[in-house]
Amino acid sequence: MTTSNRLKSLIRTITVPIALLAAVCGAAHPAMALEIDLPAETALYKQSDMPGYTLTLQNCLMCHSAQYAQYQPKTSPRSYWEATVKKMKHPFGAPFPETDIPAMVDYLTKTYGAESSTAATTK
């Protein structure tokens, strides 16, 4: 028997039992699916009867959470919110129609900005 044949035989002798052992161990302890329970979403836009509320839900949540609006300065004027919403449309390319902008700005300004009741109390 040549050295090459002895080496091949030795490899087979070691490899087969290791493969069988791995198969038996794997069958004895099947892999379990990892289950992760995430908490409910807590960052939601403040509910409102204003038309901009529904439009904001439809147009803004597709890219970021409501926390984006919640963390803006409470004293932000209408011009700030208008510039912010327009920035999302151009240059960022948010896929909402231009006609949605005034209602969204109105909702954001009156709910999170300078025209909200909390803005008056935080000044």
Can you describe this structure?
The protein is mainly alpha-helical and 123 residues long. It has a domain at 51-122: Cytochrome c-like domain (Cytochrome Bc1 Complex, Chain D, domain 2, Orthogonal Bundle), CATH 1.10.760.10. Helices cover 57% and strands 0% of the residues. It contains 6 helices and no strands. It has helices spanning 3-28, 51-60, 67-70, 78-89, 101-112, 117-122. Helix 2 crosses helix 5 and helix 4 (78-89) packs across helix 5. The radius of gyration is 30 Å and the shape is elongated. It starts with a helix and ends with a helix. 15% of the residues are buried. The model has no long low-confidence stretch (mean pLDDT 84).
Helix content: 55-70%
Based on the coordinates given, report the CATH architecture of the domain at 51-122: Orthogonal Bundle
CATH topology term of the domain at 51-122: Cytochrome Bc1 Complex, Chain D, domain 2
Rg, nearest Å: 30 Å
Query: Rough shape?
Result: elongated
Summarize the main sheet: none
The fourth-level CATH homologous superfamily of the domain at 51-122 is Cytochrome c-like domain
Distance between the termini: 93 Å
Order of helices and strands: HHHHHH
Average pLDDT taken over every residue:
84
SS elements, strand count: 0
Which key phrases capture this entry?
6 helices, elongated, Cytochrome Bc1 Complex, Chain D, domain 2, mainly alpha
